[in-house]
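[stage:ingest] chain + small molecule (calcium ion)
[stage:ingest] validated
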Amino acid sequence: MNNQSSKLSKIVFILLMISFANGFFFGFLYSNEGDLRNNHKIEHLNSENINKMIQSPLKADLDNPIIADHRIANIVRLDQIPETAIEQAKQALHIAYQHTSHGSQIISGMNYLPNFKENNGGTLGLYAWNDGPLEGALDIDDYFADGGDLGHLGDLTWAEQTRTYLDDSNHADVNVIMWSWCGGVSDNTEEGINTYLNEMNSLENEYPNVLFIYMTGHADGSGLEGNLHIRNQQIRDYCIANNKILYDFYDIECYNPDGDYFGDKYMTDACDYDSDGDTYPDSNWAEEWQENHTKDIEWYECSPAHASTAHVMGNMKAYAAWWLFSVLAGWNSTITSTTTSSSSSSTSSDSTNDTSNSQNADTSDNLFDNKPVIIGLGFTMGMFVLLGGVYSLIKKNW
Ligand SMILES: [Ca+2]
Ligand SMILES: [Ca+2]
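[stage:predict] done
[stage:export] C-alpha cells:
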C-alpha cells in the first residue's frame, strides 16, 4: 500500500511537471509573439525606414499606374494588406478629400469598418481615420474645399479650390489630394473629360510633392453603350497610359465581391441591374449578395448615400480606399503593375496574378491571428493532464 502510494505520488508529480512545462512553453510562445510584434512595430516606426519605404511611390512620376478597382475591393484583399502597411499609410499620408454625396460612400464604408473588423477579432484601432491629424489614425481632411465636386463639362472650380488649399501654409503636410465626381461624368463630353485630365496633370506638375488621385464617375443605368461608360473608359485609359493614380469608383460598382460582372446590365448607382434583358433594372446585386452572406461576419451595414441598402458596395469602396492608401504609402502590391481590366470580364487571371505575393505578406499576420487558438490549446492540454493526475490520486487513495 505504501509502495503503491509512493509510486502513485511519483506519477502525479511527473504529470504535474508535464502540465507546468506545458504552461510555461505556451506562455513563452505567447510572450515571444508579443515581443516579435512590438519589435516589428518599433522597426516599422523607425523614421529612416519609413522614408525608404515611401520614397518610390511619393513622387510625381510613377513607373506604373496605380489602379484601385474591383479586383482589390473585397474583404479577402483587405485582409491581405499587412497591418504594417496600414500603419505605414497612417504615418506617411495626409489626405485631403473633397466630394458630395456619392463620394461620401467611401467615408461611410470607412466609418463602420473599424467596429466590423474589431468585432471579428481585428486589431483595435487598425482602421481608424480622423478628420485632421491624430495619433494612430489616418489623417483625412474630409470636405477640405467646403463644397462642390469635380463639377460638369470642364468646370475647373475644383482646381482653383485645390490651389487655394495647398497654398495655405496650414496645409503644408498634405501629400494626397482626392476629388470625387457626382453626376458630372454622365453628362460630360470627351473634351470636358480631357479638360479634367489635363488640369489634374497640371496640378501634379505644380505640386510635385502631392499625389493626385483620379476618379471615375458613378454608374447611372445607361449600360455599356451609355456616355458614362465611355467617358469612364476615357479616364481609365488616360490613367493607364500616363501612370496615374486612379480610384476606379465605377469599376468597383460593376462587380459584386465574388467578381460577377453587372456593368453590362444597365446597372445604377444603387446597384440595381437588369436581370431579364429588357434594359430596365429589376434586381439589386448588393442585396442579393448580402442575402447569401452573413451580416457582421462577411459584410457590415454602412448605408452608402444613394444606395442605402447596398451596404456591401460601401464596404468595397472602403476596402479599395485602404488598399490604395497602403500602396501610396509604399506597400508593394503586385497588382499595381498589371494592366487593369477595361471593365469587361477578366477576373480570374487577375486573381491568380497576385495571390502568391499576397500570401507571402499574409503569413506573419496569420501567426498573430492564431494566438488565442494556440494559448487555448496549451491551456486545455495542461488542464487535462493536471485533472487526470488529481483524479488518479483520489481514486487510488479512497
Ligand atoms: Ca475637414
Ligand atoms: Ca429588367
